[in-house]
Amino acid sequence: MTAPFPASTVLGYPRIGPDRELKRALEAYWRQDIGLRELRATGAGLRERTWLRLAELGLAALPSNTFSFYDHVLDTAIMVDAVPGRHRRPQAEDTAFAMARGDEHATPLRMTKWFDTNYHYIVPEIGPDTVFRAVCDKPVAEVRQARALGLTTRPVLLGPVTFLLLSQPGPGAPAGFRPLERLRDLLEVYERVLSALAAEGVPWVQLDEPALVADRTPAELTATGEAYRRLGALTDRPALLVASAYGELGAALPVLAGTPVEAIGLDLVRGAAGLDAALRTPGLAAKTVVAGVVGGREVWRTDQRRALATLLALRPAAAQVVVSTSCSLLHLPYDVEREDGLDPRLRARLAFAEQKVAEVVELAGRLARTPAGAPAPDRHDPASRQAAADPSPVPAAPARSPYPVRAAAQQAHLGLPPLATTTIGSFPQTGELRAARAALAAGRLSVEDYEERVRREIRQVIGLQERLGLDVLVHGEPERNDMVQYFAEHLEGFAVTRHGWVQSYGSRCTRPPILHGDVRRPEPITVRWTRYAQSLTTRPVKGMLTGPVTIAAWSFVREDLPLARVVAQIADAVRQEVADLEAAGTAVIQVDEPALRELMPLRAAGQAAYLAWAVGAYRRATGGAGDRTQIHTHLCYSDAGQILQAIDALDADVTTVESARSHGRLLAEPAVAAFARGLGPGVYDIHSPRVPDAAEVAGGIEAALRALPAAQVWVNPDCGLKTRTYRQVESALAAMVEAARQVRAAVVPLSRAGAGATAAGQSGAAARPPAAGAGAERR
How far apart are the C-alpha atoms of 369 and 345, rounded to whole Å? Predict the structure, then answer.
C-alpha cells in the first residue's frame, strides 16, 4: 500500500552553501590545494546542514539527490553511464569535471541554459550505440546519509523523457537520429535505479519532467505515456511523483494522469493559467497533486490568500493536495534575514529559500485547518502582472541608417582588417582585485587607493592586448563585480544584496539584483573608465554595456508592471549611456544580450510577441548611435541558433556568439548564410581550463569562413575571460591572434576593405580559404 505523501515539501533546494562553501571547495580542488576527501567532506556537510535545516523549519517531506558538485543533468548522465569514452576517469567526480570542463586530454560537453533560467546544464551526448547501465551510488548514498541523521528523504531524479529531450546526438550518430529513440533502453536503467531505492526502503521518488511544459509533439507525448505506464507497472518500486516546473503541463497533464504514477507536481505560479484545465482532467481525482503555489524563482512573498484559494480549488479534484514550491529553490538565495543592508521596507516584501520553505509549511497548516467543503475564495489577483498588462505600445526606437551605409562609415573610421580580433569584455578577476573591492566596501581601503588599483589593472590589460596584437581592445572591467550587478548599483530602482548568491553553473555564482521600482540613470556609469582606457592606446577600445533584456532577466523583477514596460525603462537608461560614450569619443560600443534567448517563452504561442518587444527594447537602447559608431552585441550558451532572425533584427553591426564550446553547431544553421552583418563565432571555450593552440583556433576560423565571407567574420573567444587565469588567457589569445594572421594571409586575393566589404559590393567567393597557410600578416 502506498504511503500517503506528507503535507508539505519543496522540489529542491540551493546547494552552493550560504557562504558559497561549495564554490570555494571546488576551486581549491581544481587548483589541487585540497584532495578528493576534503571535497567530498564539504559536499556531505552541505547536504547534512540542508536536511537538518529543512526539518527544523517544519517541512514534512525532504528531498535528496538534489545536491551536485557541478550539475544535476550531468549527474544523471553518470547515473545511466552515458559517459563518452574520452571523459572516463578513475573517480566519479573527476569524470564529471572532465565532462563539464574538459582537460588536457579531452574537450568538454556542450553547455546551455536550463529552460528559461540563468542556470546552465551540461548537455549529454547520446547515440544509437550508447550503452546504458545503472550506477546507483549517488542517490542511494544520499538516502543512507540522511537515514543516519534519523531522516527519511525523497530522492529526486531527472525524468527519462526530459533527460533524452535535453540530450544531443553523440558524435557519429546518423542524420536524423534523436536521443528520444533510446527511451526504451533507458527505461531499463530507471527500473533498476527504482528497484535499488525500493530495496533501501524509500517510500517516494520524484521524477522531474520540466520538458513537458514546452510544446511537445504527439510522438513525444505518446513516448511519455509509454514511459510512465512502464515505470508505474513495476511491482518493486517506490511511489512515484512526476513533477513539472516553469509552466503549465498542458497536453502532457492528461497523459500523465492516465498512467499509474501516484502523484503529479504542478507549477501553479508560472503555470497558473493551467489550473482550470487541471480541474477538468480525467484521472486526476485518483492522484496526489503536489501543488506548486509558492514561487521557486521569485523573491517576493507569497500572497497567502491567493495561494490558499488555489489549494482549496484543487482539493475536490484530487485524492490529496500537498503544498510545495513551483520548482526547485535552486534559483533563489538562502536567507533574506542575512540582508541587514536592505531597506527594511523592501526586505519585508522579500522571501528567499528559507522564507519560501516557511511559507510552504504555513500554507500546509492553513489548508489542514480549513474544513472539507469550505468554499474557496476568489483566487484572481487584479494587481498581478497578467492583470496589469498595459495595452499601450512601447514608444518606437529611433532608426539608424541602413547597415551598408553604417558599415562603410565605420570601416573608413576604424580601418580594421578582415578577420578582426577582439575579446568579449572581461579579463581575469584576480584575487588582488576581489580583495581590494572587499576592502573598499569594508572601509579598509580609500576610494583613491582603490581607483589607482583599477587604473593599474586597466593599464596592464591594454598593454597585454597591444603586445598580443588584438585589433579592438577592451578595458577588462576590473571595476565590475558582475555584468548586471554593476549596473544595478548605479541605477535607481534596484537594490543589491550582500549574501544573495545563486548558482549559475559549477562554481560560478551570481548575486541577482532586486528591481523593485522605476529605473533611472542619475549619471554616466562607464564613461570615465572607458575614456581612461582609450587614452592608453591608439587602437579602438570598446565601451562595454549590458543590454536591457539581460539586466531584467538576471535580476529579480518587480511584478506590478508588465515585463516589457520594465525592460523599456532599462533600455532608456542604456540609451543614455550609449549617447554619453559616443560623446566621449568611443567608436565601438558593445551592448550584450546573452539572455535574449533565455527569456523567451517556452511555448511557441508567446514567442513572437516576446521577440518583438525584446528586439524593440534593444533597438531603443542603441538606435540613437551615429553611423560611425560600431555597435556590437554578444550572446552565449543559449542556443542562439534558434533565434538568428531575431538576432539579425537587433540591427547590431557585429554579433559575437559562443561556438567553440558547442563545436560550431551554430554555423550549420541555414539562417547563418543569410546573416547580413558582422558575426564572430567564438573560437576559444573560456569555460574550460584547456588552452587551444593556433592550429585548433584556425580550424574554428576556417569553419566560420565556410559559412560566411571573411568581410563579415570576427575572431573572438566564446565569452568573457573573467573566470580564467592570466596565464591561460595570454596563451589562448596569442594563439587566437596568430591563427587569425595565418588564415588572413591565406585568404588571397581578398580585398583589404574588411568589415565594410560586403556593403561595398565585394563578392564573398574569394573569402572562403584553403587550409591556413604558414605566413603571417602584420598590421
Answer: 31
Q: Do the beta carbons of residue 99 and residue 83 sit within 8 Å?
A: yes
The per-residue pLDDT for range 104-143, each reduced to its tens digit, is 889 999 999 999 999 999 999 999 999 999 999 999 999 9
Q: Is the dihedral of CA 274, 278, 279, 280 positive or negative?
A: positive
What is d(CA 459, CA 604) in angstroms, rounded to the nearest whole number? 48
Phi, psi of 612 (to 5 degrees): -65, -50
Tell me whether strands 588-592 and 630-635 are parallel, antiparallel or unpaired: parallel
β-strand pairing of 239-243 with 263-267: parallel
Find, among 265, 310, 257, the residue nearest to 282 by Cα: 257
Q: Say how far apart CA 580 and CA 543 lie, in whole Å.
A: 10
> How many whole angstroms separate alpha carbon 761 and alpha carbon 58?
70
d(CA 20, CA 24): 7
> Which residues are part of the catalytic machinery?
687
Predicted confidence band at 384 (pLDDT cuts at 50, 70, 90)?
A: very low
d(CA 448, CA 439): 12
Calpha distance 734→683 (Å, rounded): 12
Cα 299 from chain centroid (whole Å): 18
User: Cβ(419)–Cβ(744) under 8 Å?
Assistant: yes
Q: Do residues 160 and 223 touch, judged by C-beta distance below 8 A?
A: no
Distance CA(186)–CA(445), nearest Å, equals: 57
Strand ranges (DSSP E) for 548-666? 556-557, 588-592, 630-635, 654-657
Of 630, 617, 581, 626, the C-alpha closest to 754 is 630
Helix, strand and coil percent figures for the chain, each rounded to 5 = 45, 15, 45
How far apart (Å, rounded) are the C-alpha atoms in residues 658 and 700? Answer: 12
Q: Please state whether the peptide bond connecting residue 238 to the residue before it is cis, i.e. omega within 30 degrees of 0.
A: no
Q: DSSP of 745-757, one letter per residue?
A: HHSTT--TTGGGH
For residues 118 and 482, what is the distance between their CA atoms, to the nearest angstrom? 14
711-719 mean pLDDT: 95
pLDDT in tens, 602-639: 999 999 999 999 999 999 999 999 999 999 999 988 78
Q: Encode 392-426 in three state secondary structure.
A: CCCCCCCCCCCHHHHHHHHHHHHCCCCCCECCCCE
pLDDT in tens, 451-485: 999 999 999 999 999 999 999 999 999 999 999 99
Q: Which residues contact 497 (CB under 8 A, 6 or more apart)?
A: 333, 339, 341, 342, 511, 513, 514
Neighbouring C-alpha atoms within 13 Å toward the C-beta of 362: 13
Measured CA to CA, the distance from residue 392 to residue 389 in angstroms comes to 9
Residue 290 belongs to what H/E stretch? strand 288-294
Confidence of residue 188 (pLDDT cuts 50, 70, 90): very high
DSSP symbols for 659-728: -TTTTTGGGGSHHHHT--SEEEE--S-TTSS----HHHHHHHHHHHHTTS-GGGB-B--SS-STTS-HHH
Those residues whose C-beta lies under 8 Å from the C-beta of residue 9, and which sit 6 or more positions away, are 59, 60, 61, 62, 63, 154, 290, 322, 323, 324, 360
Is the distance from CB of 407 to CB of 759 less than 8 angstroms?
A: yes
Task: Report the DSSP pairing between strands 153-158 and 204-208.
Answer: parallel
CB count in 10 Å sphere of residue 460: 15
Cα separation, 207 vs 699, whole angstroms: 41
Using the 8-state DSSP alphabet, how is residue 631 labeled? Answer: E
Q: Is the pTM of this model over 0.85?
A: yes
Cell of 714: 570576427
Q: Which three cell numbers stand for residue 312?
A: 482549496
